[in-house]
Amino acid sequence: xxxxxxxxxxxxxxxxxxxxxxxxxxxxxxxxxxxxxxxxxxxxxxxxxxxxxxxxxxxxxxxxxxxxxxxxxxxxxxxxxxxxxxxxxxxxxxxxxxxxxxxxxxxxxxxxxxxxxxxxxxxxxxxxxxxxxxxxxxxxxxxxxxxxxxxxxxxxxxxxxxxxxxxxxxxxxxxxxxxxxxxxxxxxxxxxxxxxxxxxxxxxxxxxxxxxxxxxxxxxxxxxxxxxxxxxxxxxxxxxxxxxxxxxxxxxxxxxxxxxxxxxxxxxxxxxxxxxxxxxxxxxxxxxxxxxxxxxxxxxxxxxxxxxxxxxxxxxxxxxxxxxxxxxxxxxxxxxxxxxxxxxxxxxxxxxxxxxxxxxxxxxxxxxxxxxxxxxxxxxxxxxxxxxxxxxxxxxxxxxxxxxxxxxxxxxxxxxxxxxxxxxxxxxxxxxxxxxxxxxxxxxxxxxxxxxxxxxxxxxxxxxxx
Length: 466
Ligand SMILES: Cc1cc2nc3c(=O)[nH]c(=O)nc-3n(C[C@H](O)[C@H](O)[C@H](O)COP(=O)(O)OP(=O)(O)OC[C@H]3O[C@@H](n4cnc5c(N)ncnc54)[C@H](O)[C@@H]3O)c2cc1C
Prior knowledge:
- The chain contains 12 helices and 19 strands.
- By secondary structure, the protein is of the alpha/beta class.
- The chain has a domain at 425-466.
- The strands form 3 sheets. The protein has a 9-stranded mixed beta sheet, sandwiched between helices.
- Helix 2 (44-56) crosses helix 10 and helix 3 crosses helix 4.
- The longest helix is centred in the N-terminal third of the chain and has 25 residues, at 99-123.
- The model has no long low-confidence stretch (mean pLDDT 96).
- Flavin-adenine dinucleotide (FAD) binds next to helix 2, strand 13 and strand 17.
């Protein structure tokens, strides 16, 4: 009998295979153009910014410039959590910005999840929006203590309204995974089909008059009045703003190399499970599921009955290199598949059909940046550290408000600030990031082995921006 993983397509993104269109590329830019707003990046950030700009002022001439195709980046290949969890953890938010800002941020994040659901419904975008909420489970005593601490912070800040703790039996009643010691359930939150969302959003932007050039790489951004972008096919002059919405991939752009750290995350997808297997697993609520592992296990149940199992990614590469083929190496996925089958031994013989990775952008201080400077004509929305599905809509709306001068769209939140400090130069960056990645893997391994904590755990946590 062939091994169940022989049919795995490494580097193939399940969501893009299943997005409902054939990813035919739109025409590239050919010649010089002038618009009101030129947006670099056809992912959620760029497209939500375009969408909300056109809502604020339908007369604006908007162009999105995308190096590959809309949804090629993290937006088309993520875990599908449209999550009320913010990129920065709530206790960190409170520590750095105070209790009021933490509350305002988490409330805004909850609200944008509902807003996304409403817009998708209104626009007829079939992005499989499934409001199943969030379920965090603890699989070690350390994880259980951390979950209780998180809940206590929510409670203290008055944010625990739709969140409650679950006993081990209650959590196991929702999901029959191994080693569950307890859980925390949040009613808010949805799972989505990210590629259907990003592709649908691109079409919605075009339907409102926005233009999209694909296969068009921006080689240089020139600030000024007006600001401009240069591509091999021509220059785009932007009367009002150039928006940088390329997240992790911006580290390739001159002047932005150290702004965000490209960190990979990787996912494997099972074949659709049969009813008997689903009966054994449960998970009837389609919650976005996670554990408290440092290496970040995140799981999604798809509409067609698969389990997607994601985990923190491949080792960081020197100089923030992010080659696509580095994420198609089968050797990277063995531990993730083993982890999935550790969670659910019943999946022992179920084939893994897809295994892929993608790059997300980590800001040095852990806080996203949404900013527009009329003097340079440059705006940006980025830095979501792996929690960008919902946050990019919040950021895109806020950035549209700044550019269109519609203050009602601009929230008073800590992310409304210029990009934060730069990452260290190499080789310091490589040494530090590799150390943190290794330390987190060691912390998880020791925690599972015997509940011990490596002596450098505190140091590793203090160095990590998130
Ligand atoms: C594997 C994985 C799993 C994740 N899971 C989740 C999750 O479950 N929930 C969640 O909230 N977040 C998740 N994230 C993070 C989330 O997907 C991102 O934060 C979000 O999609 C970022 O959207 P974006 O539009 O800013 O960037 P991207 O989607 O990366 O889009 C940027 C686009 O800009 C283009 N671009 C960049 N530079 C240029 C240039 N010079 N010229 C032209 N075009 C350019 C790129 O080609 C790309 O298409 C995950 C990320 C990954 C990689």
